[in-house]
Write a structure and sequence with these properties.
single chain; 8 helices; 54% helix; elongated
Length: 123
């Protein structure tokens, strides 16, 4: 398809062809769930009146059971809070958010969710 050598890294090929790896597709799906159901999520600013840098992050309920931590709801909060601020401020404009998120994920082509969570976009 791309006439690449057998040992060529697929990361750059994914970027050239506009293909998202499976973890990136999962990130898009979960964040689309969060954006479509914003009324079910609370931000830190709605819980606490203190003005912090993370005031627009989603609030994670204090729940200890491991079954809660495996739900899409909790995964959505964790993924959304890991997005760069330039993306998370677009949450009220669904079309711009989806376009910007896809561009961001195509640029970085994360091969795992852990790689996404550990990535720091700040210089």
């Amino acid at each position: 398809m791309a006439s690449a050598q057998p040992r060529t890294s697929s990361r750059s090929l994914f970027n050239q062809l506009g293909i998202l790896p499976v973890p990136c597709q999962y990130i898009i799906s979960v964040t689309n769930f969060v954006i479509s159901n914003q009324e079910n999520f609370q931000t830190h600013s709605s819980i606490n009146s203190i003005n912090t840098n993370n005031k627009y992050h989603l609030h994670r309920p204090n729940a200890n059971p491991s079954c809660f931590k495996k739900r899409t709801f909790d995964a959505g909060i964790k993924i959304f809070n890991s997005l760069p601020p330039s993306l998370s401020i677009l949450k009220n404009d669904k079309v711009k958010f989806k376009v910007a998120l896809k561009k961001y994920l195509l640029t970085h082509s994360f091969y795992s969710a852990d790689e996404f969570f550990m990535f720091n976009d700040n210089p």
